[in-house]
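Consider the following input, taken from an annotated entry for FLYWCH-type zinc finger-containing protein 1 (Schizaphis graminum).
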Amino acid sequence: MPLTFIKSQKGKNMLINKGFLYSIHDVYETKVVWRCTEYKKLSCKSRCHTTTKDETGSILKETDHSHAPNLAKIEAKELVNIIKDTAITEITSTRNIISNVLGQTSIPVIGQLPIIKSLSRTIQRTRVIKENAPVNPSNTKDLIIPETYKLTNKNETFLAYDSGSSESRILIFTTRYNLNMLQETDDWFGDGTFKSVPSIFSQLYTIHCYTGSLVIPLVYV
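Applying the prediction step yields:
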């Protein structure tokens, strides 16, 4: 049976075996020795010996643990990796990514996940690293918006208006399709928030339309 791994927070492989997690301890010419990840917290001295450190290997020997297996903890780590992948491949908001994951997760696994604030930071950090995002400026005058941030994931124009470099700078994000939706509906709704806005701006104002049973945000100012 091939070996099974999961990525650690630092991106390194951790071996999964019978509900236990191991990290690499020593690498020899003929085998790899893995150490239980609870060796510090629970003083577990268990080791697992494999023929290689990749999926093609097999287990040669394993020693007993001083604690029970924790499948929920392993699944929680897998979910964190899924969250990171989703943060890279989708433009879904941080809140929705976390909400979608938690909504499909059992209570024991949720208990092993980091707190929501930590998950949010993980998503934001993952996106910054992947996209090589620019450093946050200290004021609106210094804000330079890369071309990739002016487009949607379908390469449509998203930054519809930029008032220019000034202390009272205004940015409007929307698409032609969104504007057409507004044009075709009689009911518009506006909502302003001061919490979910970058520190260099005073307010985020959104314009929504009512369609069917949904209220959809279409313009971000």
